[in-house]
Amino acid sequence: MQSFKVGILGATGAVGQKFVRLLQGHPWFKIAALGASERSAGKLYRDAANWIENSEMPDEIGKMTVADCVPDAMGGVDFVFSGLDASVATEIEQSFAAAGIPVISNAKNFRDHPDVPLLVPEVNPDHIELIRRQSFSTNATGFIVTNPNCVCVPLVMALRPLYDSFGIESVIMTSMQSVSGAGYPGVPSLDILGNIVPHIGGEEDKIMSEPMKLLGTKQADGTIKHANFPIQATAVRVPVIEGHLLSVAVKFSNKPAKLSDVKEAIRAWKNPLAAMNLPFSPETALKLFDDPRYPQPGRHAGAGNGMQVSVGRLREGRVFDVSFVALGHNTIRGAAGGAILNAELLVNEGYL
Length: 352
Ligand code: NAP
Hints:
The protein is an alpha/beta fold.
């Protein structure tokens, strides 16, 4: 397997640090450049980053000098991961793609661009072909791929088999979101300790719209026809450190005869990555618990190295057809780890 030199845009931030930690020992990807704002550029990474990961900063990374987020300053990389602040991501990511450097981004800026794949590799791997429609760079080597909002990952992973088997008429979802999703320093401690904050700015719109693209169908002309059902979302912040737990109710278009048919649809779902041997693809990508106590953020968010999505409490509903909970690790599966899996799929499919 070829080895790739990788840059990280926004390397000093919460997501950037997660990239640094998760990429340690990666069999294909080696960190070759770290980029951040002019506040950090020119400094050693150990002096520029306020390290918040739960393991020590890798020594060789701490000694690297942070660069400006411009292609010339981060030259020699094969592609970049982006954990950039949304206020600057559009211009910077576009400049890298224009310079012929692929960008695998966590930022929201290009998620709804019609030619940019919004990717959860197990859910819509065929959407990577959108890359062929992009024209960010004249020589077509630079492109942009994004991963969705961290709530959308467990939501669409759980909905994928249900949508395929029964069709979906509507969904109501409440997400109980951990504090790490707000970055650092995040939610003030006086707001969240012993409390629940019933509003997360901008979150519900993303949860209601991104699944439509993710569950969309590729058309003969290469475009994506979005799925079309309403999601009613409520996003609240809870005093949990890692892991977003979702309470989901689904009304089907073609009502299954029995609850066991719904369970069977989830258990029979075939992971399209199963035979690819991608390093970040977990052995079990979607797990259905029968024990009604599970899944719990404190116990299961880290399953599959934070890449497994866990579903439980699947039951018949009185208003909607079924209800269940779904759990995903927000900063691994919902951010840096998801982006790394995207890059691995791109390697496997010959785009990198
Ligand atoms: P963050 O901690 O505030 O980090 C932002 C990064 O952007 C820092 O490295 C910062 O560099 C850099 N930056 C800011 N202004 C810049 C500029 N003018 N030029 C170049 N770099 C600049 O934010 P975060 O929580 O890691 O989130 C990063 C992105 O990922 C956001 O778009 C966010 O929406 C998305 N996201 C976050 C999560 C999460 O769980 N936190 C999950 C999914 C997606 P300096 O340190 O030099 O200022």
